[in-house]
Structures are given as C-alpha cells and as structure tokens.
Write a structure and sequence with these properties.
ABC transporter transmembrane region fold, 4-stranded antiparallel sheet, Rossmann fold, elongated, about 10% strand, alpha/beta, single chain, 6-stranded mixed sheet, 2 domains, about 60% helix, disordered C terminus
C-alpha cells in the first residue's frame, strides 16, 4: 500500500523533500530563541549591560524572521505536495477505472468508487500534509529541546524524560484501541454515498411513490452509523488532551519548585540561573507540545490507513481484459461465430450464464434475439465487443478470435446501444459525436434521420444545438433511445447491436427504423434484442434464448411452427392473430 501511494507523489517528490528541510530550519530557529532570552536575563538585565540586550535583541529578531520564512515556505511546499499527491491519486484511480472491464467494475460499487476518489483521497491528503508538517518538526523539536534541556540542567531535564516515556506508553495504548474503529468508519461512507446517489438519481420515482420519508430514514440510518463509529473512536482520542495538559502542568510545577531551590542554592551557592530556568520552562512546552503533535500524527495515520488501502486496491486492480502483444488492427467484416461458448460472470459461479452456445452469423445479416428475463440475451452480445471474455470456447468476428484484436479497434467496429440509454450534458451535436468526434453536421443529420430522431430534433427551438441535461432528463425515453441509436450509427460499424433499445419507441417508429437499416446499411450485421415480436419478426433469422442456451433459431414463420417458447410469446402479445401493440 505505502509503495503504491508513494509512487503517486510523482513530480512533487522534490517539493515533498524540501518541505521537511524548511521545518527543520524553523525548529532550529525556535530552539535558539529561548537561549537568547535566557542570556538577556542573565547577562543583560542582571548584569546591567544594555548594549548586550540590544545586540541580542537584534539577533532574536533575525532568528525570528528566519523562522518565519522557513515556516511560510514549509507551509507552501507541504500544501503543494499534498494537493499534488491528491490530484495524482484521483488521476491514477480514474484512469485505471477507465481501463476496467465490466467484471472489474462489478467488483467495486459505484458509491465505493466515489468514496475512494473523494473522502478517502481527502484523508490521505490531510495525513500527508500533517506528516510533512509534523513528522520532522515534532520529533526534531522534541529531540533538540531535550538536548538543550540536558545541556542546561541534567536534573531538571530528567523530569521531561520521565514525562515523555509516560505519555508515550499511554499514547501507544490509546492508538491501538482506536485503530479498529477508524478502519470500520470509512467503510460506512460507502453506504452513505450509496443512499444519496440512489435517491438523487431516482428522485422522480421517490416522489411518484411518496417515499421521501423512507429515503430520509435510510439516510439517517447510514449517517447514524458513521456518527456512532466516530464517537466511539473520539472518546478514546479526546482523553489525550486532558492527559497532556495535566502532564504539562505537573512538569511546570516540579521544574518551578526544584528550579527555585536550585537558583537559591544550598548555603548560598546557586546551581541554576533565572534565565536558564526560563529557558527550561520554554523547552518544557516545546517538548510536550511536540509529543502532542506526534499523537496527532498517530491519529491521522490510523484514520488514513483504511483509506490508503482502499485507494491502493483501485490503483493496483488489473483489468481482466488485456490487449494481446501483437493485436490484429483491422476487422474485415461483420461475420460472427460462437464456438462452444460458455460464460460465467464469476469464476466461482456454480453454473455458467451461457452454456455451450454454437452460432454462425453472416456479414450483413439481420438477427433478432428474443427470450424471457434472465435468459442471457445481453450476456450473449456482450461477448462480441469483448465487454467480457468467454469462460470456455471462443467468439470470432470477421474470422478472428475477439481476444486477438486490439480492443479499441474491435469496439469501434462493434457498436452497442445498451439497455440503459445514457446521454451526457451538452448539445445534441456533442452527444452524437461521442460516436465519431470528427463527424460532420451532415453525417450527424443523416444518422438522426436513420434513427428517426430528426422528427423531434427539428421541432426543438434550437434544433441540434439544444442542450441535453445530465442523464438526458429533458427528453423522453423514446427520444433518448433514438439519439443513442444515431450516436451508434455515426461509428459506421460493421456490427450494430441494439439491446432492447427501441422498447420506449412506438411500433410504427420502430418499424420505420428497421426499414431504414435494411435500406441504408445493408452490409452492417444487425443484432436486435427485443421483448416485442413485432420488433424482430422481419429479421433474416431470430434466435430464441432460454436459460443461457439457444432454444431455437429460424425465421418468424419457422419458429411459429417449431418453437413452443416463441409461439407462446407471440400469442401472448397478439392474441393469436395480430400484434399486441395494435390492440392498445
């Protein structure tokens, strides 16, 4: 974990190294000032030497300015280094997530990834900034102050040593007892983010079913879990403050009492000056405050350890799909072959999702795919563009195993319109050009005409410059589907897959889109997943899926005669003689 996080410091490594050096300079300046103050008291005030007071005062100002400069530069460099580390961590995670296969994405929840890129990274940033500020300053200040104290008085410095050992034992005990709480608390953030994300994305459903109170209750429960965890941890952490304060005042009382006797001396012989006592009292605060800083470092490390591990998990996760060493860079045509294919989403699954699938589709064919919910229709087509890899067997496109292609080349030639249609914030033109960034306005308009999207776009006041809200909330479901189809067509693919992507479109428009496909892109292999028989009955062949197997394949008429599942679906939608949708 530490090695993974350290690699992300990157170009800020020099800044991170310089920052502690400035802290050392600041500590040295702070340690010199008490000595100069003691000299002013002993030689200047008691000795009546005003010249010495003035000269020493000038030296104190110079040292103080030096400390100020070192402090300012230290603050700047550690802020820059910690912010840079946070930026690089988010960048590394985001870039790796973009390379994830679907199986990798399934491993991490959306809310979990959001938490890791926000809350967890912030924890690491704060911990790193504190480490740069205190990891050198606190131990350095404590060591230097302790050495100076022993130089002034071994007897009084021994009090500090006993106090430091006592507090160190207590701090180690407290930190160990709080570690388990801080590890668990950040896991609860996932549940909180999941509750918020789910509610905001589905706010219309929440309001439609008047479930606001239920969602508030879910949020309050997740928030209360975090609250209880933090309280349990903080109960232990807050004991450090009173304990530290009690120790500081005890040390001050002991040093003052013993120091006063040493100044007065036995038989009139003084073994300590007033200035040295003042310096020792100052060093007392430095030593114990340094120990307090060290305790804060332990707290931050404890809090950030779980965050660091969660971040490292994402950065170190390797995509289950990788390009071959010498990938094929051209897809010759849209032929598709499934050769004894078996597929499971998880290797430990007891039963595969797809079972011994054998299928050959010629380039330019129009193939309908129908079947009940959970029959593995989407799983079947996901293997073509290599969104997942087969567990056994092979899938070939253009005569070549999909695992031998460069993934970008393959996916540019296999265009998929998914079940969940997603549009992005921006104009219609900008959304269409996700399919082809170089597409001209004429090409965009032609794709929209094929997808029957031009019908509603041209009625909008701003036409193709109309802005789409995030998620496409300002267009209907059917309009969103047609824009997604147009976006896929702009890729000019050799294979076009429509995964139930005309379900929100009326039957007349659906038929019009299919006729346009047959007329305008005859060489493109078309796979149409649908629930409505009317959406696939004109296809060259129709595949009937059932429980991960191909139950039947043929034309509409052949399946009506020979396949019980297809006939049952057809009769349930048409009443046996006409399309179900026409009855509505």
């Amino acid at each position: 974990m530490l090695r993974t996080l350290a690699r992300q410091i990157g170009e800020f490594k020099l800044t991170a190294i310089i920052s502690p050096l400035f802290m050392i300079g600041e500590v040295i300046c702070e340690m010199i000032i008490p000595v100069l103050m003691g000299q002013i008291v002993d030689r200047g005030i008691y000795g009546g030497d005003m010249g010495f007071i003035g000269a020493t005062g000038v030296r104190m100002v110079i040292v103080a300015l030096g400390g100020l400069f070192c402090g300012m530069m230290g603050a700047y460099t550690r802020a820059k280094a910690s912010a840079g580390l946070a930026r690089n961590l988010r960048k590394a995670m985001y870039e790796n997530v973009q390379r994830f296969s679907f199986s990798n994405i399934d491993k991490f929840s959306t809310s979990g990834l959001v938490t890791r890129m926000t809350t967890d990274v912030t924890n690491i940033q704060n911990a790193f900034q504190m480490l740069l500020a205190m990891a050198v300053r606190a131990p350095g200040s404590m060591i230097v102050a302790m050495c100076m104290s022993f130089y002034l008085s071994v007897r009084l410095a021994s009090i500090y040593l006993v106090a430091v050992v006592f507090l160190s034992i207590i701090l180690v005990f407290l930190m160990k007892s709080t570690t388990r709480y801080f590890k668990r608390v950040f896991e609860k953030y996932d549940a909180l983010n999941e509750s918020v994300q789910e509610n905001v994305s589905a706010i219309r459903v929440v309001k439609a079913y008047v479930r606001e109170e239920h969602e508030i209750s879910k949020f309050e429960k997740a928030s209360a879990n975090i609250y209880r965890m933090f309280i349990s941890a903080e109960k232990r952490v807050v004991t450090i403050g009173p304990l530290m304060t009690a120790t500081v005042y005890t040390c001050i009382l002991l040093i003052s009492w013993i120091g006063a006797h040493m100044i007065v001396g036995t038989g009139g012989v003084s073994t300590l000056t007033t200035g040295e006592l003042m310096s020792l009292l100052t060093y007392c605060m430095n030593i114990l405050m340094s120990l307090m800083m060290v305790s804060f470092i332990f707290v931050m490390i404890t809090m950030s350890e779980a965050s660091g591990r969660r971040i490292a998990e994402v950065i170190n996760e390797e995509s289950s799909l990788k390009n071959p060493e010498h990938p094929v860079m051209e897809v010759p045509d849209g032929r598709i072959e499934f050769d004894h294919v078996q597929f499971a989403y998880h290797t430990e699954s007891a039963e595969p999702v797809l079972k011994d699938v054998n299928l050959r589709i010629e380039a330019g064919e129009s193939i309908g795919i129908i079947g009940g919910t959970g029959s593995a229709k989407t799983s079947l087509v996901s293997l073509i563009s290599r969104l997942y890899d087969v567990t056994e067997g092979s899938v070939r496109v253009g005569g070549t195993d999909v695992r031998d292609y460069d993934m970008e080349v393959l996916r540019n030639q296999v265009s998929v319109v998914l079940q969940k249609n997603v549009l992005f914030f921006g104009t219609i033109y900008e959304n269409l050009r996700w399919g082809n960034p170089e597409a001209t306005e004429e090409e965009c308009r032609r794709a929209c005409a094929l997808a029957c999207a031009d019908e509603f776009i041209e009625k909008m006041p701003e036409g193709y410059e109309t802005r789409i809200e995030q998620g496409g909330t300002n267009v209907s479901g059917g309009q969103r589907q047609r824009l997604c189809i147009a976006r896929a067509l702009l890729k000019k693919p050799k294979i076009l897959i429509l995964d139930d992507s005309t379900s929100a479109v009326d039957t007349a428009t659906d038929a019009k889109i299919r006729r346009a496909f047959a007329r305008e892109i005859p060489e493109t292999t078309k796979l149409i997943i649908a629930q409505r028989v009317s959406s696939v009955e004109d296809c060259d062949r129709i595949i009937v899926m059932n429980d991960g197997r191909i139950d039947g394949i043929g034309t509409h008429e052949e399946l009506l005669r020979n396949n019980a599942i297809y006939r049952e679906v057809y009769e349930s939608q048409t009443g046996g003689d006409r399309d179900f949708d026409e009855k509505q």
